Amino acid sequence: MTLDKARKGQKIIIKNIPNEQIRVEAIRMGLYEGVEVKCSGKIPFGPVILSNRMQEIAIGRKLAKSIMIEVNDVKEGA
Amino acid sequence: MNCCEGLKIDIPEGAKKIVLVGNPNVGKSVFFNALTGVYVDVSNFPGTTVDVSHGRYGNDVVIDTPGVYGVSSFNDEERVARDVILYGDIILNVVDALHIERDLFLTLQIIDMGKPVIVALNMMDDVQRNGIQLDVQELGRLLGVPVIPTVAVKGEGIDEVKKNLYKAAVGKVNPKIYEMMKDYIDRVEEQSEALMIVEDDETILDKYNMEATGKREEAYKLRRQRVDEIVSRIIRKEGRGNTFRQRLGYYMLNPITGIPMLILVLYIMYKLIGVYVAGNVVDFTEGTLMQGYYEPFVRGIISKVVGEGNIIYRALAGEYGLLTLTPTYVFGLLLPLVIAFYFFMSLMEDSGYLPRIAALTDRVLSFFGLNGRAIIPLILGFGCVTMATITTRLLGTRREKVIATALLGMTIPCSAQLGVIAGMIAPLGAKYLLIYILTILLVFVITGTTLNRVLPGESSNLFIDLPPIRLPRTINVLKKTWSKTSMFIKEAAPLFALGALIITLLNETGILVVIQDLFKPFTVGMLKLPKEAATAFIMGIIRRDFGAAGLTDLTLTHAQTVVALVTITLFVPCIASIMVMFKERSKKEAISIWLGSFVSAFVVGGLLALIII
User: Fold this and answer.
1) What parts of the sequence cross the membrane (chain B) (predicted)?
2) What is the pTM of this model?
3) What fold characterizes domain A3-71?
4) Smallest Cα–Cα separation from B362: which of A59, A50, A17, A29?
C-alpha cells in the first residue's frame, strides 16, 4: 500500500521511494527502504507525519501517494 | 585551496580554518560567538541569500556555515556549506543531542572525509528534560573523535570545547565507504573531495572532469545504517515521549487547534507590526527622523553645493530625490517593518513553529502549485513584496518561483500600502471591507489555480523536517534578524535608488504625464473614477503607499473607494519589486507578471465597478 493510506499511530515499514532526489534526502533524515517508522499524524487531506524517536518529518500528500509501505502492526509485548 | 574564494575570506599564512558545522538550529552561533568574540565579518555568498560569518580565534580563522542536514548540493545553503567544509582544517560539529538520529548523519559524513573533528553534543538539558540518558563516552568511542556534552546557551561545556579544540581527531571512517573512495583519493586534493566524487557531487566531478559513480545512495545507506546502530548503542534510557513541548508541536499541526493558533499568531503580528510598527514607529522614523531632520539637512547641503531649481538638485533632493526619497523610504519606512517581519519569522523558525505552519498550509497551497514552504514568502509579502520576492529563492522549482512571484506581485499588498488602505477602508464599514477582501482573495485564488494549470512541469512536494519545539534563543533570533535585514538593505536599497532615478527621469522628460494621461480613459471609462485617480495609480509604482495615499485627496463615493483600492492593490507593485522580479526571474517571466498585473487590475477593477457603482 501507499503511505497516504497509513493510519495515525501505525508502525510502518518503508518499501520504496520512487523519486530519486527525495530518496536521497530521505536517507539523511532516517527514512530508507526497510526502516520501521511511526505514522504519528495526518493532516486532513494534507501531509503525513512520520516519526522515528524524536525525528519528525512532514511529507506532502501527493508525495506520500508515491511511497510504498507495509504496515507492521505487531503490538509490543503481544 | 579553493575554499572561500567566493567568500573573499582572508586566511593568514599558517592559520588553520576551524569550521563550524551542524544541522539547522542546533546552536552553532553560540559557539561561534564564544570562539570569535565581537570581531566578526559577514560575507554574502554571491548569487545566494546565504551569509557566512567568520572571525579569529587566536591565530586561526573560525568560519560558520549555514545549517545543513548533509554535505551535498540540494540547495544554496548546502552548496555554500560544502565549499567551506571540504577545505576546512578542523571541524567543530555541533550536534543536537535530542535529535542525534538526524544529526549524526552529517557527523559521520564529515568523519568519512577524513577531517579532524570534535563534536559538541549540545542541548543536553533538553535530553535530561525528556528523561533520556545518553552514553557520551561510548559515542566518542564509536565515532573515534572527542565528544563534549554542552548546554551552549547556558555556557556549559564551552570552555571544555575550547580546551579540546586542537585535540580534534580523525575519526573512524566507514570501512565500506573508504573502500568505495580509495581509488579516487590519489587523484584529488583531499579525501573530502574523494568522498564527494563517490557521492556524485556535480561541482567536484566537474572540477576533475569525472563521471558520476552512481554510488551516492549506497554510501548514504551505509552511513544511515551506521547512525541507527550508533544511536541504539548509546541510548541508555529512552524518553517519556509525552512532554508538553511535544504535545504543543502536535497541537500546532492538528488543524482543529493549529488553525486557530495560526490565526492568533497572525493577528498578533498584525497588531504589533501592522499597527504598532507601521504606525507609531514609522511615524517617528519616517516623519520625525527622516522628513523632519534628515531631508531638510540634505536639501540644505545640496542647495549650497549645486544651487536650487536645476535638474541635479531635483535628481538628488527633489520630490523623488536620490538622497531624499530613497533613504526616507528605505530607512524611515521599510527598515523598521523589515526588521519587525524578520524578527517574527526568526522567532517562528527558531521555535520550530515555521515548518509546522508549512505542513499545516501545504494542502491549501498545493491548489496553487505551491507547497507549504511557500507560506514563508507569502507572509513576508505583507511586510515588503520586494523582500518576499527575494525569498522565493528558497522554493524548489522554477515553476513555484514564478507562481509565488506572480501572486506576490499581483495580489499581496505590502505593509506600506496596507496602512493607507486600512485607513481608507475602515470608515466605510464592514460591507465594503468584505468586498475588498473577497475580491483580492478571489484574484489570488484564480491567479494561483490558473498558473498551476497552464505552467508546464511539476512543482516539488513538501518534505520537511519538523524540529522539536523549543524556546527561541535570543542570540539566534537577533542574529538571523540582523543578517537577513542587512542582506535586504544591501540588495534592495540600490534598486530603490535606481527606481527613484528612473522616476525623476520620466518626470523631467514629461513622460510621467503622458503615462498618466494614457491611463485616464481607462480610469474614467472602466473604473468610473475621477481622472485624477490615474495619477495615484502611477504614483503607486514609485511607492505603493504613495499611490494609495494619492487617493485620499480625491472625493470618492464608498463604492468608488473600494474600486480604487482593489485596483491599486492589484496594480503593478512598486518599482523596486519590479526590478527584483527582473533580477530573480527571466525577462519574459517578469514582463508577463508585470503586464498581467496591469491587465488584472483594470479588468477586475472594471468588473467590480460594473457591479457596485
Assistant:
1) 248-270, 320-344, 364-390, 402-426, 432-451, 492-515, 562-582, 594-612
2) 0.88
3) SH3 type barrels. (2.30.30)
4) A59
